[in-house]
Amino acid sequence: MRNTLKLIATALIASLSLVANAQPDGRIVRSKRQWIKERRPELMEMLRSQMFGREPGKAPDLHATILEESADAFGGLATRRQIKLSFDKEEKYYLTLLMYIPNDRKGPVPAFLGANFKGNHATTTDPAVLMPTEDKLATYAPGYQVEPRNTNGHRWEYEYILKHGYAVATFCYNDVDPDFHDGFHNGVHQLMDGDKPRDGESWATISAWAWGLSRCLDYLETVKEVNAKKVAVIGHSRLGKTSLWAGATDQRFALVISNDSGCSGAAIARRKFGETLEVINRNFPHWFCDNYKSYNGREEKMPWDQHELIAMIAPRPVYVASASEDDWADPVGEYFSLVGAASVYKLFGYEGITDRKVPEIEHPVVVGRMGHHIRRGEHNVRLYDWQQFVSFADRFLK
Question: Catalytic: 214?
Fold first, then answer.
């Protein structure tokens, strides 16, 4: 097992000096108004043009079709609803959204929304959850193999979430844009861009997944059982990077959770610890816009860092989770993004995480509208993580 406690004790000094409300010329943003009117738009422009690409507007014809519904999910604990959420009139482009809504409710409930990796059926033992359709499977990666039911059930603690009064909704990320590089022809890029030539700022796959999360929020705004003003967007690993970008671009999300998102997610890039920009851009060239590749091995030349992505969420609550054995995702760098973003939360009148000593394993920290923990174990999502996420959400969404 890696000596993660030793890792935590060796945080780089560069990480300690990051302050999100400092401008490149050294001037400090000292007011909420200046942040909202000047610095935030400037940083968002930078993130769009240099990292994620420029996301498009809403879907041309968003509409929903209920595929299946039952009030007897998990022994009557919840209502299960499965929805075909189409982005176009012809229904060529769509995702299948799986929703569970607690039956024991009084009025609209808050919700967790996130994408999943292996299909809705792989998130649960529930035998009524639909398998991926043949037309969808045909667009997934070449040679894609359907995973067995409940393969990733440990990452989706449905019953725990439901018993605490939350709805939960998820879809397979491949439904929006399959996770391999085919030149952006088989996902929603084709729908939204057509044959428009791509350039260095064109949106890429993580931006597409975030766009899909926003379209799900569009739909949730029409669901009477859900309070769409109290939706937490959540993601793990590459989908943790996605949840942060969704939270930055769509301020309707009331709370943002990143789990083990690492490099190009919550972790400070300039640390160059674990996975790096060059590793990501070489192995996953479709995740980010082409301009991002110019910083391969040159993280110190970036005019921003990931603490400023966290700051884009302010003043909404944000939670960053790590795992003790997940050196590849750099738990130290993930923690220091919160420290760096705290100065912006301060502009809005909220305390943030400012202690430069990284917390011990499984000692969650919540300060103001920021939360953090390092779970013991590997790169994953476990019940312990959900316990902290639900506890944090209880503070703000109930």
Answer: no
Instruction: With beta carbons less than 8 A apart as the criterion, state whether 208 and 215 touch.
Output: no
Cα separation, 170 vs 242, whole angstroms: 14
Domain boundaries, the chain: 4-397
pTM of full prediction above 0.85: yes
Q: Give residue-wise pLDDT tens across range 188-239.
A: 999 999 989 999 999 999 999 999 999 999 999 999 999 999 999 999 999 9
From the list 15, 86, 207, 237, the catalytic residue is 237
Helix (H, G, I), strand (E, B) or coil at 138: coil
Q: Indicate if 237 belongs to the active site.
A: yes
Integer Cα distance of 280 and 293 in angstroms? 9
From 63, 181, 379, 391, the catalytic residue: 379
CA-nearest of 161, 189, 186 to 98 is 161
> Dihedrals φ, ψ of 367, to 5°?
-130, 120
CATH top class, domain 4-397 = alpha beta
